Amino acid sequence: MIHFMLNGEPVSTDVPEDTPLLWVIRDYFNLKGSKFGCGMGLCGACSMQLDGVSTRTCILPVSAVEGRHVTTIEGLGTADNLHPLQKAWVKHSVPQCGYCQSGQLISASALLAQNPNPTEDDIANAMSGNLCRCGTYPRIKDAILDTAAGGVAQWEPPGSDNAPSADSVSDGVAQEKSVAGGEA
């Protein structure tokens, strides 16, 4: 059984330890925002944050996340409370086909959490592992710069302190969501 935090919630899963994290998140936890692109960790479509660092999950075995914090695109914001980067993405009309956008947003949010005032070179370096076949790189850069100017580093998504929510606590013990094998 592998235990980790997923978007601020404690979870566990009983799957083969070498299963790529991408497939565990998509198939067992039914979070479909992170995409499969190349299967070799080169394109960034599968990016999720692992302890705040953008990580390619198509090549990361689920065993590597034991006791760690995983954030997917679904954990950045909600329909009612978009992350400032998501708002900037809309404002700057970043997506065209949209396939790479979850990975782009995950990498951009990791960058801004580590460097709230990035230069254009900082952005180019941080985003170099995320490919966009539509070529919206200038708009991605503009959205990141716009968000940085608005202070995204101070924004914290609900539950980001990783404390259990009131709904997940019973008798003082955090309740854990569990997924075994392919059964939900």
Features:
184 residues, alpha/beta, Ubiquitin-like (UB roll), DNA polymerase, domain 1, 2 domains, 6-stranded mixed beta sheet, two-stranded antiparallel ribbon, 5 helices, globular
Describe this structure in words.
A hairpin with a 2-residue loop joins strand 3 (47-50) and strand 4. With 184 residues, the chain is an alpha/beta fold. It has a 6-stranded mixed beta sheet with strand order 4-3-5-1-2-8, with helices on both faces. Strands 6-7 form a two-stranded antiparallel ribbon. It has helices at 21-28, 84-91, 101-114, 120-127, 137-149; strands spanning 2-6, 9-14, 47-50, 53-56, 69-71, 169-170, 173-174, 177-180. It is built from 5 helices and 8 strands. The chain has 2 domains: 1-72, Beta-grasp domain (Ubiquitin-like (UB roll), Roll); 76-155, DNA polymerase, domain 1. The longest helix is centred in the middle third of the chain and has 14 residues, at 101-114. It holds the Pfam family Fer2_2. InterPro entries: 2Fe-2S-bd, 2Fe-2S-bd_dom_sf, 2Fe-2S_ferredoxin-like_sf, 2Fe-2S_ferredoxin-type, 2Fe2S_fd_BS, Beta-grasp_dom_sf, Diverse_Oxidoreductases.
